[in-house]
Model the fold of this input.
Amino acid sequence: MDKISINIIDESGKKHILNIDVHPDMNLMEVLRSYDFMEGACGGMCLCATCHCYIVSDDKNILIKNEEEDDMLDQLFSLKENSRLACQIPLSKELDNLTIQIASAD
Ligand code: FES
Done:
């Protein structure tokens, strides 16, 4: 199984590095939730936005969203150009060295 590193900036600005296995049937929220970085209240159904994060890495591809995610993000005061819902990001090798910032709750 492939291993990747994800750089996390938590809500207080502290940096963390996670070295994780790429489980193809898991998404980024599930990993971050298991380390208590976020709540993921709806379980990845794109209904709660408690998995809101900002993509700090300069990677335009990871900012591509579907309409459902866009609609959910549009409801947030903390929306930025680089906002994503972590539950809509499948784990893959391409995420290696990704840097994200956890968004504070609206
Ligand atoms: S976990 Fe609810 S929208 Fe991502």
User: Anything to note?
Assistant: The CA atoms of residues 38 and 51 lie 6 Å apart. The longest strand covers residues 3-9. The beta strands are 3-9, 15-21, 52-55, 83-85, 98-102. Helices lie at 28-34, 67-73.
